[in-house]
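Worked example 2:
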Amino acid sequence: MYQLKFVFIGLLISSLSSIAQASEAYIGQFLYKYKGGNTYRVTVNDNKTMQWACVEGSEKGANGEEKPQRFKLADKVYFATWVEKTGINVSQAIDLKNMKVYSTIDGKERYVLEGNIVREK
């Protein structure tokens, strides 16, 4: 019975994850302007990939293409997470209602960032 509970919980989480993954992703081109000076251009053309490039700040020129897992949390509010090719883990809460982004970046060090979003396209 104890194992059956865990199987049921696993199936429930799995089905909720599938439903969340099926949610329509936010699409467009955005600037994420973080406090501290870094600005990233984030381009989302579909619900499978995204591109980013640092256009201002200490990481200017850094860029990548990612395949994030995205979940719709509420109307115009999303959670995205991915592992970059360098091994850096990124998690973000993207609030397009209030045009805010909250990011946690885990690599050799851990950074917790907050910024404003500007829609370009």
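The chain has one helix and nine strands. The chain has a mean pLDDT of 84.
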